[in-house]
# Entry
Amino acid sequence: MSDLAQTLLQLYLPLGGWIFAGWVLGQFLPKAISSFLGKALFWVGVPITITGFLYRADLSGWIFIAPIVAWIAILVGAIFAFIWIDLGVKDERIKALSRGLDDSPSTSSTAILNKSAWSKPTQGSFLLAMMVGNTGYMGFPVVLNLVGADYFAWALFYDILGTFIGVYGVGVILAARYGRNQLKSRVNLLKKLVQNPAFWSLGLGLLLRMVQLPVAFETGLKTSAWVVVNLALVLIGLQLSQLKSLQKLNQVIPCLGIKMILVPLVVGTGLMFFGITAEPRLALVLQMGMPPAFATVVFAEAYGLDQDLAVTTIAFGCLGLIVLLPVWMLLFGTLS
# Structure
């Protein structure tokens, strides 16, 4: 068995095993358990993970380019999404006009769009799914297993300063514009960031690097961090067990194709022109290639976006990740 196959097998077994365990538990446990576990991981678990793995992580090199890469990936995804939506809407309008269903230019932008497969809520979910990935609960375990804890900081900076701000910044703007439900108040992005425990644990992890921790304490911290990683995978399984609808495949396939294949391939290739290669580039490519974030479902429920599309992109995105990981390892990894 090749080194690549052995590495992937070592990832797939725990990754699939813990997610499947969560899915099985989700068939019997009340939905409140998933919500409780999610809050516990957000406030306690993720900070432990960040502090534990950041303590010995390699912060040398161009690590601060990670959030810049995240925003480039978000921007590229948004551009492709707008182009695809525009093509889809124009195609439906042309078909409607050819059938004589709409001969009034003044109503073409409203009547057709409201009945089309590209309604505004669908456009909002499509944009969100293509722009932000699950770089935390799923991205962290993948990077830790395939790249190693030494380069965890690259994935961390990508998530906190890139994806997180994208979700609660761009996500809220998109929800306000495309959702059926009007927002009662604007979400204060700065307040969200300050209240995010990941930022505090980032600072704590950086401070702890200045001191020499007892071996027993360091070992316990890292062990706890890995326990949290496994619990995060269980949470993904619990959330997947609650997804009841798998529709919108005509929109899901191009969405995931651009989000999980085209963007990582284009941006990942471009990184070598800036001297970002080997393990750091692989960590960033893996983060770019993550399935859409579960926050897209939360936004769909809260703000009246297309829930069917949000659910289906996540479900098929998780399946697609299994197929794509060997591709990224072959193209951007150090194994062959």
About this structure: The chain has one domain: 3-332. Residues 21 and 234 are 6 Å apart (CA to CA). Residues 66-98 form the longest helix (33 residues).
